Amino acid sequence: MRIDVISIFPEYLNPLQLSLVGKAIEGGLLDLKIHNLRDNTADPHRTVDDSPYGGGPGMVMLAEPWGAALDEVIVADSVLIIPTPSGEVFSQSVAEQLAQKRHLVFACGRYEGIDSRVADHFATKAQVLELSIGDYVLAGGEVAALVVIEAVARLIPGVLGNSESAADDSFAATEHGRLLEAPVYTKPASWRDLAVPEVLLSGNHAEIAKWRLQQAQQRTQQRRPDLTGD
Ligand code: ADE
C-alpha cells in the first residue's frame, strides 16, 4: 500500500517510523511519503490560511496550496481522507475497508479546516472520505491521521506476525458480532494475591474459548452496549 500524508507539520508524523508501521515501511509492505503543504505555496510568507467567508472566529486553509499538493499525488484509485471532527466516525470496519485500498492520501487540516471546495473538487477525481476519530476536537488532523494509519497498517497482510492475529482483536467481526476482547493474563499465575482464572491454566482449549467468548460478551454488554447487534 502507498500512503501520502500532507501537513504543515510534517514532523508530527515522525512516530510512523517506529514500531509496527516502521517495520512495515522497512519491509516494503508500506510506501509512506510525508509532504509539507507549504512547499505548494507561491508567496514569500508561504501562506496557507485566510479568514472565513461569512465571518466568524479562526482561519480557514486555502484551497490553492491544497489543490496543488493533491494534484501531485491523487490518482483515480486513491482514497483521499480528510480528518475532521465533522466527518463520519472512524471504526474498525472502516479500517478493514481502507486496508483493501492501494493508495491512501491524508490531507491534515489545521485551524477551522480546509476550504470545502477542496473535498468537492477531488470527489470528482477519486473517493473522498471525511473522517472523525471521535467526539472531541483536536488541534489538527495529524494525530487523527496517525490513528487511522496505525489501525489500517496492522490489517495489511504480512504486517502482523503469525502469532499476532487481528482476528481476536476487540471490534473484529466474528460470528457473534463485534465484541470487546476478553481480559488477558501472563505469568506469574499468582500476583499480589490475585490469581489468573483457573480455566486459562487448564489446557482445555474448548473451555478456554467458551470462557473468553462469555467474558467478551459480558464486557461488551457492560461497557459498549451500542456495539451489540453490529
Ligand atoms: N481534527 C480535529 N479533531 C478531529 C477529530 N476528532 N477527528 C479527526 N480529525 C480531527
How would you sum up this structure, described in words?
- The strands form four sheets. The chain has a five-stranded parallel sheet.
- It is of the alpha/beta class and 230 residues long.
- The chain is elongated, with a radius of gyration of 21 Å.
- The protein has helices at 19-26, 63-73, 92-98, 117-122, 142-153, 205-223, and strands at 2-7, 31-36, 49-50, 60-61, 78-89, 103-107, 127-132, 173-174, 177-178, 190-191, 194-195.
- 27% of the residues are buried.
- The protein is built from six helices and eleven strands.
- The chain starts with a strand and ends in a 7-residue tail after the last helix.
- It binds adenine.
Relevant terms:
single chain, 230 residues, two-stranded antiparallel ribbon, 27% helix, alpha/beta, binds adenine
Topology:
Blueprint: E1 2-7, H1 19-26, E2 31-36, E3 49-50, E4 60-61, H2 63-73, E5 78-89, H3 92-98, E6 103-107, H4 117-122, E7 127-132, H5 142-153, E8 173-174, E9 177-178, E10 190-191, E11 194-195, H6 205-223
Parallel strand pairs: 1-2, 1-6, 5-6, 5-7
Antiparallel strand pairs: 3-4, 8-9, 10-11
Structural class by sheet pairing and helices: alpha/beta
- Summarize the amount of helix as a percent range: 25-40%
Q: List how many beta strands DSSP finds.
A: 11
Please give the largest β-sheet.
5 strands, parallel
Number of H/I helices: 6
Question: What pattern of helices and strands is seen along the backbone?
Answer: EHEEEHEHEHEHEEEEH
Which ligands appear in the coordinates? Answer: adenine
Distance between the termini: 28 Å
Return Rg in Å: 21 Å
Give the low-confidence spans.
Answer: none
Residue share in β-strands? 15-25%
Mean pLDDT: 96
Strand order in the sheet with the most strands: 2-1-6-5-7
Shape: elongated
